[in-house]
Specification:
heterodimer; A: about 230 residues; mainly alpha; Four Helix Bundle (Hemerythrin (Met), subunit A); 7 helices; B: about 600 residues; two-stranded antiparallel ribbon; 15 helices; globular; electron transport (chain B); EC 7.1.1.9 (chain B)
Chain lengths: ~230, ~600
């Protein structure tokens, strides 16, 4: 359970930092009048939707941290046999990076009001994300063809479970992305479009990060890394 | 007296007005509503309905325990199914949904001075997914093989094996699917509660001016958002084990002479995931109760809450600590002694902020102008009950005491006191307190008094003897214990007594339900602020509050939520949105 505890420690650190800016030492029984003008005591100047997405991503992060924790605990048992990772995963990783870059370009363009670049970026991101999902399915097909079935070994089970869960999140993101894309053609107000492109980009970067972490986990580098850390500590 | 800015009225806030969704038809106004208040009532009604099912299940269990051998229709399988569904419904579908989905939805926007939740559409979805989860759960009663009988903790491997009711039928699958749906729905609602508190507070409503109710619900929601994923992961993995034949949790097992295809999995892994959710869940239920009870006591004792800052810090502290105590539910599963030591220590440390809260409640009462209204009675009963339940928690938090007691009725008595009776007393108190705001009418006082005394005394008559039975060594989880040495004559008599009391308390709830319905039409007119309270929900222009809550302009907050009996003020309460200082020199509490 150490992975999830470390994750929560990060969240707690962030929450503590935020709380420390909220005048928790104030004595509200002595203070009267409007004190909302003190900077930072009202809501954040960031758009509410961004805060909402941020909180949601913390929950998603928690979910994957828990899967990782379970992965490590199950891995320690004797019947674990790592499976060879299909090469197509490297290609998928590249595609997903492209997708993130395209959305980043789109969000920069949206801020500058270049609607054509925004459209191009959104479509590219959507297509590359689809390509990523197809690539993941290819990886599954390759593994099953080679006899690495879901139930054969816990390592296989975790591979399908975690990549599937990540794929579902990408799929959900695609639903949001397609709404944004339709909006980019149907003339949504520029500031609104800008916000929703930025939200998509944020979600995409986060899922890319999660994918890189998962990739490292499934490839076994994460375990090696932790082993090195443990040796350094003891 | 520190005036941060001149205390005169200031021009209306620059808080951005949110665009409200305006319903066009009866359907979008009352059924598929995006108004947090309607959603709150939908949540509460659904939770109460499924809670009544759980109440009936507890009666059936008590019938069997009190009068073993008398009721043929309660087979061992049925008994386990009753236990499982009773526990799961009460903890998740009633308590969590009612505190966060019900009170959270109703009170957060009103108390922080917002028009509505920040994402009303998502909020509406949250309710409908919750309803779907409840329906899936209820459908398992009608599935072949009936609901799961795995115990509310759903421990593998037994949860998905043939010997357990529903293990190889539909029961366990429906339970897991229902939980997964619940978590998805809750996450949608939870995002709303958290972000509304963060972003939609009205002008002047700093965090340290929030009523403690909001602090409690806010912190509990943050915890729930971080803890429920653990249950989600456990459920998904168990669903894989059950339906696809993986071995996440399932060790190699021979069942009825036949080797199952599972092998090598770890049941302990499930326990870790489950309790990583399960322990914070206790405080997800308790923290809103703490918050609400603070407000009830302060309002009905006409006195500012003692040690507001400490109360806030304690809430946050309890929330953080509750994530590092989960393994104290697993002492009997065996663990390294150092781990046991660690978890026993953290468990005992959590008593410190909790005790601070109890002291502060008592000191708020000290020399207060106590009005023994029905909500106040329930609040006082909560303090007593929570202390009682908490004290036995100190016993069970220690490894050496827990191991012999863990499988006895003592544990049943402990957790029913601390997370069953105590939060439910707060729910009742809160309903008596806020019902006038929701409906515009007071609940009937006489029926309320009757409901309180029967529930409060009855709950003690149920659970105090149960501690004793547990100490005698009567084990929990057994369908029948007729001819065993631990079941002495007196234990039998006590069991029968407990069962009769359980029926009595159950019937008192019927009076309460009748009161809820009867008072909608026949209750005394309440007016906008019957308790003469300071918080913003009592200052709305209309009662019940209209869509948008606050009429044309949002209120501006000039003071904290607890200005009761301020010396020099005209009345014994000053609402949060009243400007100006009143010539007092109150000492810091």
């Amino acid at each position: 359970m150490s992975v999830i505890l470390v994750f929560l420690l990060v969240i707690a650190g962030f929450a503590g930092w935020w709380l420390s800016h909220q005048r928790l030492m104030a004595k509200p029984w002595l203070e009267q009048g409007v004190i909302g003008d003190v900077v930072g005591l009202e809501g954040s100047p960031l758009p509410t939707a961004k805060i909402g997405l941020g909180v949601f991503l913390a929950v998603v992060g928690c979910l994957f941290a828990l899967f990782t924790s379970a992965y490590f605990m199950r891995m320690a048992l004797s019947d674990w046999q790592a499976l060879p990772l299909p090469r197509v995963l490297w290609f998928n990783t590249g595609v997903l990076v492209l997708s993130s870059i395209a959305l980043q370009c789109a969000s920069v363009a949206a801020r500058r009001g270049q609607i054509d670049t925004v459209r191009l970026g959104l479509v590219t991101a959507g297509l590359t994300a689809l390509a990523f999902l197809v690539g993941q399915l290819v990886a599954w097909r390759e593994l099953t063809a080679d006899g690495y079935l879901l139930t054969a070994n816990p390592a296989n089970s975790f591979f399908y479970l975690i990549t599937g869960m990540h794929g579902l999140h990408i799929l959900g993101g695609l639903a949001g992305l397609s709404r944004t894309t339709v909006g980019a053609w149907n003339g949504t107000r520029p500031e609104r479009l800008c916000l929703s492109v930025e939200l998509c980009a944020m979600y995409w970067h986060f899922l890319l990060f999660v994918w890189l972490a998962i990739f490292a986990l499934l490839a076994g580098w994460a375990a090696t890394f932790i082993e090195i850390c443990r040796q350094l500590l003891t | 007296m520190v005036d941060v800015t001149p205390a005169d009225a200031v021009p209306p806030a620059e808080v951005a007005e949110m665009e409200l969704y305006h319903p066009h038809s009866w359907w979008t106004k009352y059924v598929f509503s995006q108004d947090a208040k309607v959603i709150a009532i939908q949540y509460s009604a659904t939770a109460t309905a499924i809670g009544l099912v759980a109440l009936v299940l507890s009666w059936l269990m008590r019938l069997q325990l009190g009068f073993p051998g008398t009721f043929d229709f309660i087979s061992p399988e049925a008994y386990y199914q009753f236990i499982t569904m009773h526990g799961m419904i009460m903890v998740i579908y009633l308590l969590t949904a009612l505190f966060l989905g019900g009170f959270g939805n109703y009170l957060i926007p009103l108390m922080v001075g917002a028009r509505d939740m920040v994402f009303p559409y998502v909020n509406m979805l949250s309710y409908w997914i919750y309803l779907l989860a409840v329906l899936v759960l209820a459908s398992s009663f009608f599935a072949p093989g009936g609901p799961t009988g795995a115990g509310w903790t759903l421990y593998p491997p037994q949860a998905i094996m043939t010997g357990t009711p529903g293990g190889q039928d539909w029961g366990i699958i429906l339970m897991l699917v229902s939980l997964i749906l619940f978590i998805i729905g809750f996450t949608m609602g939870g995002l709303n509660y958290v972000v509304t508190v963060l972003q939609a507070r009205t002008r002047g409503m700093t965090l340290m001016r929030l009523p403690l109710t909001v602090w409690g619900i806010f912190t509990a929601t943050v915890m729930a958002l971080l803890a429920f994923p653990a249950l989600f992961v456990a459920c998904v993995m168990m669903l894989f084990d059950r339906s696809l034949g993986t071995s996440f949790f399932m060790p190699a097992i021979v069942e009825m002479g036949e080797q199952l295809q599972h092998g090598g999995g770890s049941p302990i892994l499930f326990q870790h995931l489950f309790w990583f959710f399960g322990h914070p869940e206790v405080y997800i239920v308790a923290l809103p109760a703490f918050g609400i009870v603070s407000d009830l006591i302060s309002t009905h004792a006409r006195k500012n809450i003692f040690g507001y800052r400490m109360m806030v810090w304690a809430i946050v502290g309890i929330g953080a600590l509750s994530f590092v105590v989960w393994a104290h539910h697993m002492y009997v599963s065996g663990m390294h002694p150092y781990f046991g030591f660690f978890f026993a220590t953290t468990t005992l440390i959590i008593a410190v902020p909790t005790a601070i809260k109890v002291y502060n409640w008592v000191l708020t009462l000290w020399r207060g102008d106590i009005h023994l209204t029905v909500p106040m009675l329930f609040a006082l009963a909560f303090i007593v009950t929570f202390v009682n339940g908490g004290l036995t928690g100190l016993f069970l938090g220690n490894v050496v005491v827990d191991v012999p007691l863990s499988d006895t009725m003592f544990v049943v008595a402990h957790f029913h006191m601390v997370m069953g009776v105590a939060p439910i007393l707060v729910i009742f108190g809160a309903i008596y307190h806020w019902y006038p705001k929701v409906t515009g009418r007071m609940l009937n006082e006489a029926m309320g008094q009757f409901h309180f005394w029967v529930t409060f005394l009855g709950a003690y008559l149920i659970f105090f003897p149960m501690h004793y039975i547990g100490l005698m060594g009567v084990p929990r989880r057994y369908h029948e214990l007729t001819n065993t040495t631990v079941m002495t004559e007196s234990a039998h008599d006590l069991n029968a007594f407990i069962s009769i009391m359980a029926f009595l308390v159950g019937f008192a709830q019927v009076v309460f339900l009748f009161n809820l319905i009867w008072s909608i039409r026949h209750g005394r007119e309440a007016g906008g602020n019957p308790w003469r309270a300071t918080t913003l929900e009592w200052q709305t222009p209309e009662t019940p509050p209209a869509h948008g809550n606050f009429g044309k302009e949002l209120p501006i907050v000039y003071r904290w939520a607890y200005d009761y009996s301020v010396p020099g003020a005209k009345e014994d309460f000053i609402p949060q949105n009243v400007p100006g200082s009143f010539g007092s020199s109150r000492e810091p509490a």
